[in-house]
Write a structure and sequence with these properties.
The chain is of the alpha+beta class. It is built from 1 helix and 9 strands, in the order αβββββββββ. The protein binds FE2/S2 (inorganic) cluster (FES). InterPro entries: Rieske_2Fe-2S, Rieske_2Fe-2S_sf, Rieske_Fe-S_prot, TAT_signal, TM_PetC.
Length: 167
């Protein structure tokens, strides 16, 4: 068997291709990660968080439910706390509303400032009906977002709040 000697030119070609490939991979990796990140994030958005609220204990009066979970953002993990106003409607269905005002993002309160049977935003006097619909003539121009809900072992689970349209 004859050994084929590697010429200086071939050696340089192989070496440069290797180094070039390594550098190209280093540049492409972040771009690929950037491109597929929304796909990964979408998976996370579909997650439900378990709260300490027992569904059996819910009534027709909205209660404030706070819940926390860990959020992974690239290499950084942080604890996020969110809130929902939760009650059972006339059909016994669980309704969970985001407390974030659709005007400028303040937090709304159930029956705040003596507004009976309504959510009240203290920042600019925004009002919402119990189902989250914004009251015309007050600053908010859209209904409160609504959490998708599930029940696990008797406890309420909440997904990511979504905009709702109320006729
Ligand atoms: S932020 Fe709620 S009314 Fe302005």
């Amino acid at each position: 068997m004859s050994k084929q000697p590697v010429s200086r030119r071939q050696f340089l070609n192989y070496t440069l291709m290797g180094v070039g490939g390594f550098m190209a991979a280093g540049m492409l990796m972040p771009m690929v990660r950037f491109a597929i990140d929304p796909v990964l994030a979408e998976g996370a958005a579909g997650e439900f968080q378990t709260t300490n609220q027992k569904v059996d204990e819910l009534t027709s009066t909205p209660v404030r439910v706070d819940f926390s979970y860990e959020q992974q953002d690239a290499w950084y993990t942080s604890e996020v706390t969110e809130t929902a106003w939760v009650y059972k409607d006339e059909n016994g269905e669980v309704v969970a509303l985001s407390p974030i005002c659709k005007h400028l993002g303040c937090t709304v309160n159930w029956e705040g400032d003596n507004n009976e049977n309504q959510f009240y935003c203290p920042c600019h006097g925004g009002l919402y009906e119990k189902n989250g619909n914004n009251v015309p003539g007050t600053p908010p121009t859209a209904p409160l977002d609504k959490y998708p809900t599930k029940v696990k072992d008797g406890f309420l689970q909440l997904g990511k709040p979504e905009p709702q349209t109320i006729a």
